[in-house]
């Protein structure tokens, strides 16, 4: 279980924070980030644990991972104070009432809270509200998966993409990893041993821990989406010296542009923000997205801190606004 917290957080002790604390959680398939905010809206502590998704409640193993991760998060946050409310953005959550009720119960327990103290939404809704007010623009978010989102002034949520790694999620970390492995093993079908002359294959196999098919098979079919998505780091590490790796990242940018164009076609041209950790892999991703959009479309990048925004929303500061 990966657990980390801000090394400077102890400088902002709960005693100095004052008032009731709000805990914000931005949960994705690769990593779950958390933050505590006081009633002045100041972030007093933050950290991260392993990735979780709403889909994990459907299996025994997934449920156990979800519970263990939440307990690890609660223990890390408790060092700095006890939250009065928790605002959660959770990947894979579609708003179903029965799922929401179960998730709130699960999330309330490690914090000693009641289910009604847990404010639950999709992680993309949370990221949108961290960047736009409703009706202002479109958020294209690329992490483990990829999606474009638009929230109307009336609160209606609209999306393009976000269909999961089996169907699509083009431009996301899982897709980048899958494209890389597809190319490597197709090349091995045609020219066995060609991986030795491929910087991409060398980086990928180093990350996986083996250059045989059994190692790749175990990695992509036995790992979680988040674990597989992390292989995108190896693809990015090869991009400046390997044209195939560079091309995969360039295509990722084109795919993310397609999501934005889809929403502009449905609801009109509005400002577009690209967020999520995939944009940090290599500059060609955002550059390719920009080049793939019509010239009159506005695009800017955002280093989203959705867990900070969620913490402020959950604190007394957020309740007063």
Automatic annotation (TrEMBL):
It comes from the Bacteria. InterPro entries: ATPase_BadF, ATPase_NBD, Euk-type_GlcNAc_Kinase. Residues 23-282 form the ATPase BadF/BadG/BcrA/BcrD type domain. Pfam families: BcrAD_BadFG. This is ATPase BadF/BadG/BcrA/BcrD type domain-containing protein. It comes from Undibacterium terreum.
